[in-house]
Amino acid sequence: MTKFTVNNQPVEYRVDPATPLLFALRDASNLTGTKYGCGTGHCGACIVDVDGAAKKACQVPIGSIEGSFVTTIEGLSHDRSHPIQAAFLAENVSQCGFCIPGMVMAASVLLRNNPRPSEDQIRTGITNICRCGIYPRLVEAIQRAGRIQRGEDTVASPRPGVDPSDAARVVPALTPAP
To answer: Which UniProt keywords apply (predicted)?
Structure first.
């Protein structure tokens, strides 16, 4: 059994210690925000914060992180209010959205270690692959998140879109006209 903390909750996994963290999070903890992309550590869709470092969860056996602290996208904030999440929304970074959780987690670690990253530092530090090509907006969003964290910028309303409270709304079934 492997024990560590996930999103500030102690967890004991009763799976093989060689199990990749990605599958422990997704399958055993039902934390599906961490995405399975390539499974080889190249794409970055599965990045989580392990003890303050951006780690590709598909490459980390849970036995190697006994006693660690892991933060997933679900643990960053419950209402998307973290400066990085707010900046990603305000800068309209997401397209398909599949890579975004890994990018948000990588960016949160980057900004914690470097609150004023240059464009080159962002491009070097965020190596995630995005098939939609959001890289120019990504750089601006990370710089804006840094300004928000430093109190130099405010979070503007995101561009028009679906209100989160409407996204999961149940729509009554249509009944045929008489």
So the answer is: 2Fe-2S, Iron, Iron-sulfur, Metal-binding, Oxidoreductase
Contact 128, 102 (CB under 8 A): yes
**CA quadruple 146, 148, 149, 151: dihedral sign:** positive
Q: Which residues span the domain enclosing 120? A: 83-158
Phi, psi of 70 (to 5 degrees): -115, 135
Residues paired with residue 53 on neighbouring β-strands, in sequence order: 50
pTM of the complete model: 0.85
- Return the CA Rg of the chain: 18
Statement to judge: residues 98 and 59 lie in one domain: no
With cut-offs at 50, 70 and 90, classify the pLDDT of residue 118: very high
Chain segment 143-161, per-residue pLDDT in tens: 999 999 999 988 755 445 5
Into how many domains does the chain fold? Answer: 2
Per DSSP, the three-state class of 10 is: strand
Q: Does 165 fall in a domain?
A: no
* pLDDT tens for each residue of 60-80: 999 999 999 999 999 998 888
